Amino acid sequence: MTVDSPVRTTPTKTRRSPAHRRLRLLQVLILAVGLTVAARLVWIQTAQSSDLALKAQAIQTDLVDLPAARGDIVDRNGNLLAGNRTTFQVSADETVSQAALQRLSQMSSVPVADLQARLLVCGQPGAQPGTCYRGQPGEPIPVLSDVSIPIALSIDDAGLPGISVSRAAVRDYPSKANAAHLLGYLREGAGQSGLEAQYDLMLQGEPGQAVRELNREGQPQRRTTKQPVAGQTLVTSLDIETQKVAERALRKAVTGARREGYKATGGSVVVMDARNGQIRAMASYPTYDPNIWAKGLSEAEYADLTDKKSGQPLVFRPAQSVAPPASTFKAFTTVAASEAGFDLNGTYDCPALLTVGGQTFTNYETRAYGPMSLARALSVSCDTVFYRLGYKMWKRDGGLEATQPEEHVVRTARDFGLGSTTGVDLPGESAGSVPDREQVRSEFEQSRDDYCARARTGYPEESNRARARLLKAYARDYCRSGDQYRAGDALNTAIGQGRSLVTPLQLATAYAAIANGGTRVTPHLATGFENGTTIDPAPRGTVSARPATLAYVRRALATTTVTGTASGAFLGFPLDQYPVAAKTGTAEVAGKQSTSWFASFAPADDPEYVVVVNVDQGGLGAATSGPVARAVYEQMFGIAAP
Amino acid sequence: MTTFVTSRPAVTIRRFDHWLLACAVSLSVIGVAMVYSTTWTRLVADGDPGGYFATRQALFVVLGMIAAWIVYRLERPALIVLAASGYGASILGLLAVLSPLGTTINGTRAWLTLPGGFTLQPAEFAKVFTVLLAALWLSDRQGARGLDDPPEARAVLGVLGAAGLVCALLLLQPDLGSAIVIGAAVLGVLFVAGVRRRLLVILLVGGAAAAVSAYVLGVLDAYQVARFTAFLDPGADPQGVGYNVQQALIAIGTGGVSGQGLLSGVHTQGAFVPYQYTDFIFSAVGEELGMLGGLLVIGLFVGLLYRAATAALHADRFGALLATGVVCWLGAQGFENLGMNLGLLPVTGVPLPLVSYGGSSVIAAWIGVGLVLKVSRR
């Protein structure tokens, strides 16, 4: 090509020119890059598409639980014991400014630091377990709950950025009865104790679900995919009026005992239908306000609930505290004696004291009654009669060298359910224990080494030197012969002292078996759900005692309130109309004041209810616990208190 | 036969390459539609008219077409005046954005605010006028020099100086993407103009060395380094630059073959992809128009460039260089844009020519199209 020739020459020349080769190269480059880009597009939209679609879904959508309304808990007459209350709650999202929090603090009089503490998500640095947020991330975090309506409205009107006011359901225990331990409480929407925990699944209902579609600015749009199903209403056998009376009478008994110089550290009342085990009322003292959980507890408040000094209000004494049953046990010793062949219609001597193996066992207040029937011995609670029965049965078993002991007393007590859980529909029940010879031996095998070491070293850490000496003597004694089931053990067992430990609820079911003719009912609070489901747990069995023996014991106990140990407590009570069978007990625990027991059922001729009362370190059974049982009967039978 | 072809009357009747124009118009129409789809939801949510950005984009396209028609009509002397004044105005504009008159958007000081809610981005016009200037300078002033003749050394130096000045000003904003585009366009023109290979190699190596030293010496802003590291490892900073690329890939990946439809792409309508109506508009194309729509856009774009390169093949020296310049400019910018949308190239923040929202970008690209149409005229 010459200098003068125009570019637009013949195509043959064009193809040869280097400039045109360079332009062709440019075209090839365009096609190559275009193909690369196109191939990449196709690859992303085919091979990568499922991976990227998953990522897209994770970013664009979010599953949100829609809470289901929790079921109510009602008493036998439909009175509300636990329900839901609508409250106002103030929440903050992550865009909330310091200024908005300051303003919120002023309006609610809650310190800013507290508000900030609640904004921290659990697991973040600085988050406190008690206050941190446990919910779903991305949702507004509640910073104030149970806000009063005027404050909620003023916060809403202020329109603080990042702050929202919403309604929230809070568990509420509105009844005038306390029943805190029976109902239990919730944490994070789940039942933690009592009926709330026992029937959590049914009460909870089924949470619904919503898909939340997000965009980059975080403006969510909700689409409900599953409607929540509200929880079932739990119907209980409780009677709110009886519960109130039981609680009030127990509180009165405890404060009364304290006024008389007893420590009266706590107490229990069990009111049960003797025929089917339905609980009418159960009171535990000390107690707490069941509504405190809704607002959220501070560490100090929680410590107060569990502290020994405050009497451990969280412990549900009727089912979780154990004590020797004391004289209330004599009813079972009577049954055991009858099974062992002793004549129920015989005459038994009630001396002031009894000497066995060089050891003297005295009657309570060392009073002698002279010869009497076994029924009378029960009614006046003569210790020496039962000591002698226990000793005779122990001798018959072979005493210390027993090879095949019948152990009538222990066997009978266990047959009535003492020393084992009752199966009540509340979590955390204690079993207690009624040890037989075998158990005494195995316990000895386990603890011998400790006691033998103590027998040598003593108790130098014990500041009270007299007590240290006593403990050391006991340790020496136990180390030497702790495996022996001695006459003293048998005697103490016969009057409910010594090693036997029972819960008030156990005693109530055992007395129910006496009352109803031998059926070991399963105590329960729930009778069904609103949807028609009924709860009627099967009895745990039938006691082996003959019905005639049980009838004899019922008749004997019926006289306790008339001429026996409880006659004072039931003075003026219409016993001819509503005969009450009862047994008092005063348990002695080494180093402590006596525990007051009162086990009873009524009407004695056709028993409907069992009422068991105890007050720890509360003094005499009849004097302290008797009036509580009386108050309960008065309420249930509709008797005006004198 | 060959003589017959060159003297065929039909060739003179066909005034320009219709295919080229068709590609450009199609891309612009798709652009307006995508701007509408990517901005409608948020505008409506804010209570604004949903077609606000789309209407403006359509206006830009019309203005661009008018500008294209004007340059199409200009002859060489007028083009020389246009190139000189346009380049001069661009330099003034690039200086002005660095002055207090400039507006900073997303870390780059590249905009001049105009009355009526419009902004002007001088960098976009600098691209077209630098290319025009280079093509004029490297072709013979008398129009006698052939395409295969080596360019005058003084012309080469002049072009390098003019382009270097623009690039320097762009890097001050900093707008690395536009500087690379202008560099690529000028290199392409020099290559076709027949400068010695050694010079091209020196320029390429020099440019690369400058980039590396800028990185090592920390001259680059942190965001530019971040964009580059995010390209190497998109998961490194999922909330930052890597986020942008990730979201674009997710949007495209969920498009499938036929797409989710205009206004129906979940990711696009949820505005998960930042800058989805400007630099990342191709992600919306990928999601809402799917593989077919994406391939159509790529095909139209390749068609535009290919036809422009074909026009260069049949043009005189000036026309060939001019078309080459426009091809290299639009090609570098377009493929860089598609590449960053598809996770092939680091994010440098350049719009997709004719498609992305932006008045300066659309009008400048249409001026380029007008110039190429003029070259295609026989």
Outline the secondary-structure elements.
The complex is a heterodimer of chains A (642) and B (378).
Chain A: H1 11-16, H2 18-46, H3 49-60, E1 61-66, E2 73-74, E3 80-92, H4 98-108, H5 112-119, E4 141-147, H6 149-158, E5 163-172, H7 180-183, E6 186-187, E7 190-191, H8 194-198, H9 200-204, E8 208-213, E9 221-226, E10 234-236, H10 240-259, E11 266-273, E12 279-285, H11 292-295, H12 299-306, H13 317-320, H14 330-339, E13 347-350, E14 353-356, E15 359-362, E16 370-373, H15 374-380, H16 383-396, H17 408-415, H18 437-457, H19 465-481, H20 487-494, H21 504-516, E17 519-520, E18 526-529, E19 541-542, H22 547-558, E20 581-587, E21 595-602, E22 609-616, H23 621-637
Helix pairs in contact in A: 10-23, 14-16, 14-17, 14-22, 15-22, 16-20, 18-19
Chain B: H1 2-6, H2 9-13, H3 18-45, H4 52-73, H5 76-98, E1 102-105, E2 108-113, E3 119-120, H6 122-138, H7 153-172, H8 176-193, H9 197-217, H10 222-232, H11 241-253, H12 266-269, H13 281-313, H14 317-341, H15 359-376
Antiparallel strand pairs in B: 1-2, 2-3
